[in-house]
Amino acid sequence: MQFRRFGSTQYRVPVIGQGTWFIDERGRATAVAALKHGLDLGMTHIDTAEMYGAAEEIVGEAIARHRDEVFLVSKVLPQNASRKGTLLACERSLRRLRTDYLDCYLLHWRGRYPLRETFAAFDELLLDGKIRSWGVSNFDIPDLEDAWEIVGADIACNQVLYHLNERAIEHAVLPWCERHGLAVVAYSPLGHGDFPGPHSPGGRLLAEVASRHGATPRQVALAFLTREPSVFAIPKASTPEHAEENAGAGDLRLTREEIARIDAAFPLGPEPRELPVL
Ligand code: NAP
Known about the structure:
alpha/beta; 10 helices; 7-stranded parallel beta sheet; two-stranded antiparallel ribbon; 9 strands
């Protein structure tokens, strides 16, 4: 598994991490096994959120004996992101996760509270040792500009929608983050389950490239998305088998020619007026 510096922070984080949206109580035992297996394979970046229901508690169980190895990320909902509300939301997340700190804490998306308030709370959490860095999610260029004006280089990352059929961030958000030293975390990197089928032209190309590397189409997709050193991906897997396949992408390097062919098969498309979100 390749590790990379996470934006301008001091932390080194695996290129491929683990998402947790929609893991729930019914699949708890398998989800815990999947997360633990992922950790063993180097996918130590675990992404969760107060929004994801039981996910934080399930993550808490999975990381109980591995806390020091994990780069643990959670998110505050915009409706909780007042100064006081952020502090309280963080306490609740810490309790559910059975830990006393987060490695990175994100504003899930921009809401009605002024960014200044949320960021002041993040600062307080940093000073108290309850978080080690913080970032944003679903921030488009105007949001990033506003945030930068308030705090500059304190922002560790922007977590955004990015998969083969949704490459809008490449127009402006990704270059902006690279220029300003923010890590870009690709969420829904496998299309939230809507992955190119084996009989589609794009799917056939992924299979062909995969076979050259003894890899799978999903591994090729993840390697393509993380081809730039600023980008990390957090696919969600509910089974140890899926986790194992995703971890395999962490060592896969595509050639320039393969990247060019994938780029042509899944074209960037025109720049949308607003950043697409899920
Ligand atoms: P995703 O990771 O793109 O796709 C997950 C789907 O792919 C699930 O159906 C999963 O099935 C399947 N899958 C995963 N690995 C597979 C494999 N090796 N073979 C076959 N199928 C596989 O979608 P996502 O969950 O939306 O995104 C990933 C994470 O990003 C989330 O879990 C969450 O942590 C984060 N996220 C953040 C935001 C935000 O607003 N910041 C929004 C969306 C997501 P199984 O479950 O059966 O393994």
